Every structure is written in structure tokens, then in C-alpha cells.
Amino acid sequence: MEAKNWTEKKSLMEIPRDKPDGIWDSEWAAMHLECMWPGLHDAGYLAEIKAVTMDVTGDRIGVSQGRARLHKYLRQRGYSADLGFPDNPDGWQFPCDPDSEGDLRSFKTMDTLLGLQIDIAQGAAKKWLKRSHVDDEIYPAWMLVKYTTEISEEWKDRWMIAGGRIFAPLIQAMNPNTQETGMIALKDDPIWAAPGDRNIFPDALGIDHPPFYINSGLSWDPVLKIEAIAHGLLPSGMPQKLMEESIRRHIDYKKNMQVLSKRAVQRRSEEYARRNSPEALHEKYKDQAQWYDTYNFSIKACEAVKKATASGEDLKAIMARIRTGLLRKELSHKPKVEAALRRALGLAHESSGLVLDACVEYKRALTLDPKVGCKRDYERLTSIHHRGV
Question: Which CATH number fits domain 283-387: 2.40.160, 3.40.390, 3.40.1130, 1.25.40?
Fold first, then answer.
């Protein structure tokens, strides 16, 4: 894309420090940023994008709902891929790149557009959040990282073209997700303005924080002061031997943390493999089948007891099945099912002449579910018991 296609509006404004409670950091950043997209100059649509971005970063709606709102707005404005905005012909200048999406309504364009605003807000919020005096003392530098593997290695070349330095990692990470990139600079280093400088990279966003350019997948992690000292970015302010000992201890700590992290990942992998082994899945499906059998039986348990009693059948088998069902752990989340089984057990006790046992089960059933249907039976049996009949 050509740099001239970018909106010339100021892309980054000063974000106030007095953020009210109840507002997410990314939402606070989105409130104070202007939306940007190559060739898009329609103030109304930019305002709608900003409102949607604020709602998404504020966790009030999801990205799919935000996309639907943008679609609705374009439809109401009468937007078309051929004519753009009928009431503002200059509001959307098609990108010069023939491979780019020309229709603002396409899912690809809309997801990229909205995702870009969210990434910018999150990057600005991270910078805003990490620029307090205390935080700068603890974490005086940033390390450029990528949070997705679905991007090219071009970002490393850009860092070098921008004049960035790549430091050798303090340790070789065992987990690729914790690999140190070595692309480190102090927070106040002018280098951070370079990756987003349009004079250096035509597709840059004109901002001094990630994502720097569209679909970069870039972010940054704070770097501890001891590591900045180890890389020579800051003076130590301590005797040489003490500094070397401090760095050595920090490296040993990082190594130990990596070992623990590797073990934790390995345990999770082993646990996942165990839970998803053919034997475990078989037991899981078997257990689910038994639960569904218990659930279905609870619906007709009382009728089964009544039918068996009327025909003079032995109730031991039915009572054993009811008691087995009452042992199911799922009942702790299914009080109505347990109530139905206890009512059936109470009915079986009553049919066997065990009035007190029946009263106990009826009362348990009513405690779990007042509408289980044995209130009159419980009142009748307790009344008979009190009369001594």
C-alpha cells in the first residue's frame, strides 16, 4: 500500500492517567485514539468503528457482534463496493494495491479493520499502563515479541532496518513460547518510533507501539532492570563482583523457572493424553451412558414401583436400582432427579410397610424439590404415625 492512502489524522493522542474505575485499560486507550485505515476518510464510519472498538475492548460485545454492527451501519448508509458512500464519494478511496480487499463489507476487510483497531488499543494500553515511575524503575526496557506463529520472519528484518539491536539471550529457552528474541531497547529509546514510521516503512501505522503495521502479530514484553543491566543498556551502580553475582543468580532463577514450566507443560500433556486415551474415553462414554440411564429411570421410577406393587412383584431389584442411582455424583447438580428417585424409594418403603423409612425419603425428596409430588403422601404418613396407627 502507498503511504498516501493513509489518513493524515493524528493517530495517537495523549492518554490521560486518571482512568475511572470500571473501565478496561484497552477501552480507556480506545477512547483516546483515532481509528485508521488506508484510504478511509468517512468521519461517520470512523466514529462507528471507534464506538464498536470501545465496546469490544470494554468486553460488552464480541468481535462477531461488532462486525454485525459495522455491517448494519454500512447498509444504512447505502454503501456499495462500486460507489462507496453515496453521500460522501471521497470517504473511501480504494487502496492502490490490486491484491487488497476493496469492499468494506467483506469479512476479510472487516475482520482485519476491526482487529487492527483492537490491537492498536491494546498496544497503546500496554504502553500507557507500563509507563509509571515505579514500573519504569522495575521494567526499564521492552522486548519485541510476536504473539502468533502465523506471520513471516519479516519483523526481524524490520527491526534491523529500523536500527534495532539484537542481544544474545541470557539463556536458551526450552519452551519456544518463552524464547527470548533479544530485540530489546529501553522504553525511552527513539528506536520504538522506527517500526511504525511511515518514512521508513510505507505500510506502517505511524505509532510508536505494537502492532506497528497491519497483520504484524507483534507485541512487547517488559524487561527487568537486572536484564537491562546484563545487556549493557543501563549502568549497574554496584561493584563489579556484586553485579556479576546478581546477574548469575537471576539467570539461575530463570533456568529453574523454565525447568518448572517444562515440567508443568509435560504434566499437562501427560494428563491430557491419559484423559483422552481410548480406555479413558471408553470409561467416560460408559459413565455418561449410565448417567443417562439413571436420568431416564428417575422419570418412570414411581410408576415402576406402583406397577410392581400392584402385580405383587418383589421390590428388591427396583430398590437396588434406585439406590445405585442415588450414588451418582451428577445428582449434586440435579436436585429434581434425586428428588424423583427418593420419592420412588419412599413409595417402595411404604409398599413394604416401612412407614418411618418412607417418611424420611419423602421429606428428603420435598427438601430437594417441593413440587416432586409426595407432599400429601408425607403428610398422610406423618399424620398416621402421630396418631399411633
Answer: 1.25.40
